[in-house]
Amino acid sequence: MYQIEQKKKNDSDFLNFIYKNKNFTISQVSKALKLTYPTSKRLVDDFLKKKIILQSDEITHTSGRSSVSFFLNTESLYSIGIQIELKKISFILIDLLGKVKKEKTILNLEFNNKSFTEILNSLFNEFYLEIEEEISQKILGIGISFPGIVDNKELKILDGINLNLNDIILNDIFRKYNKEIYLENDANACVYSEKILGKAQEYKNFVVISIGSGIGAGVYINSNLHHGNNNICGEFGHISIDFSGKKCNCGNKGCWELYVSETAIEEEFKNSNVKELDSIFDKNINKDFIERYTNFFSLGLSNILLTFDINNIIISGNLAKYIERYQQDILKNIQKNIFFKNYPLNILCSNLNERSSILGAALIPISNYFNLVNLD
Q1: Any idea where the domains of the chain sit in the sequence?
Q2: So what's the pLDDT on residue 2?
Q3: Which partner for 358 in 83, 191, 199, 283 could form a disulfide, CB atoms 3.0-4.6 Å apart?
Q4: How does pLDDT run across 238-293, given as a tens digit for each residue?
Q5: What pLDDT score was predicted for residue 336?
């Protein structure tokens, strides 16, 4: 029993090592994982046979010795990501390093509890059949990003307030594909993409603010993605910043997402001639709006900082590049909002833009295989 468990641990550690290092020698594996040379060679041989790694033509020279080097075969395995949004479903196929091989988005969808699974099943089947058979055989799994509360163990949508979807089990839809299936809240999915590919690769503690039709937070503390006891950790879109404010779908008043989400902006400018986000976030055109927006945004961030006492905030989604213009305004507002002066806050805007969540969903099966992101 011990030998079986030790082999599993060695395999897991080796996979994590090769993903993070990409190129390596057997001696480097042995040193990094504190394994004997024969054990390290066995690991290399095993994964050479599986074609997860390949032997390089180059010879590495260290300490006067020549060593054969190996590298991660980034096209040995693939993964699929699905992003469910308001009136929209997107699909993506990536290789091990997140390079997009195929993608498709279907817009202007109308679905409800009765029609949703049939629509998703039909659209996914169409996407999957377009994938070459040689690649489909190498697909590790399917990750799904959903903007709401989910049960990631039961693969169940519990509550999607803004989409009017609830109590939907997804496992039956994908059973016939014989792949591992993963379901995550959209903000938590962003944690995967930012930790593996984005700006949080070196952080042990950070929060991702995902802005779309609503707003949510993915919380990564002490090198673990935090879900909470009831999978509702990070639902900061529904903290109230104005108790006498607008009525939210959740039943509360003045919810943060009613003031800073894409839906909120669309509502504010629905009768305006200004429609493009680039113009909406132009201070020369909309100075009053920018001041209100940065103030509302700062109020929500202040609540998050006082809850988690965290220094690194990453903004993801379509609005990230526009919010980036006003980082200093937001930081000044936060210093006014919280009693701890000179709070050492680092606000970063994702370079993955609108792909952050769907890439994260696709990276979940890869993360699980290579042991990249720890869960609480």
Answers
A1: 1-72, 78-192, 199-351
A2: 67
A3: 83
A4: 999 999 889 998 889 999 999 999 999 999 998 888 888 999 999 999 999 999 99
A5: 86
Concatenating the DSSP letter of every residue in 75-138 gives TS-EEEEEEEETTEEEEEEEETT--EEEEEEE-S----TTTHHHHHHHHHHHHHHTS-HHHHTT
Instruction: Give the bridge partners for 215, in sequence order.
Output: 211
Among 102, 79, 317, CA closest to 217? 317
C-beta separation of 22 from 71 below 8 A: yes
Counting every residue written for the chain, the total comes to 376
DSSP string, 194-205: HHHTSTTTT-SS
Structure tokens, 103: 């993608």
Provide the Cα torsion 338, 339, 340, 343; round to 10°: 20
**Surface-to-core class of residue 11, CB atoms within 10 Å of its CB (0-12 exposed, 13-18 middle, 19+ buried):** middle
Structure tokens that stand for 267 in this block: 């509502």
CATH number of 78-192: 3.30.420.40
Other beta carbons within 10 angstroms of residue 128's beta carbon come to: 18
